[in-house]
Design a protein that fits this description.
By secondary structure, this protein is of the alpha+beta class. The chain is built from 3 helices and 8 strands. It has helices spanning 2-25, 62-69, 132-140; strands at residues 35-42, 50-56, 72-77, 80-86, 89-90, 96-102, 105-106, 121-128. A hairpin with a 2-residue loop joins β6 and β7 (105-106). It is globular. The relative contact order is 0.16.
Length: 150
């Protein structure tokens, strides 16, 4: 009887360790110097939005934060880097594009240059492309940029 009780207790202890280990894998690690950031991705009407709590250490850009939680495609243009797709949801020039906000405010910097330092909430949104038309009109007016440069 005592032996059977020992086996039951050992099994229960092992199960508790397994459950607590699974929980630990699904929660952000709290390490010294690490910062917690909420990353929200709004896929428009393509698929449901999602939100992830990330615990990051070291300096990261807004683009690098996105890349820790999503599959990201980028496109370089004239020395700049633009996000063209997130988790398979692709922008279409002149129609839809990916934009981001940091702590509820849009940024005037591209994501690959914008430090995420101090940010508490980064939101990426798939929405109407409002920038390409402005750039295309500048190109048509001949403002000194060659076709394809942004």
């Amino acid at each position: 009887m005592f032996r059977k009780l020992c086996f039951i207790m050992a099994d229960a202890f092992f199960m508790i360790l397994l459950v607590s280990g699974a929980y630990a894998e699904n929660t952000p690690a709290k390490t010294a110097g690490a910062k917690t950031i909420i990353l929200e991705i709004d896929y428009g009407k393509i698929k449901p939005s999602r939100s992830v709590e990330l615990c990051l250490d070291g300096e990261r850009t807004v683009l690098e934060v996105l890349e820790t939680a999503a599959v990201v495609e980028t496109h370089p243009v004239a020395g700049y880097v633009f996000v063209t797709a997130v988790d398979g949801v692709k922008g279409e020039r002149g129609k839809t594009a990916w934009y981001y906000q940091v702590d509820g405010k849009p940024s005037s910097k591209l994501a690959y240059t914008r430090p995420a330092e101090g940010a508490k909430h980064i939101k990426w949104s798939y929405q109407e492309d409002v920038c390409s038309g402005k750039v295309d009109n500048k190109l048509k007016e001949g403002k000194g940029k060659e076709a394809g440069e942004v």
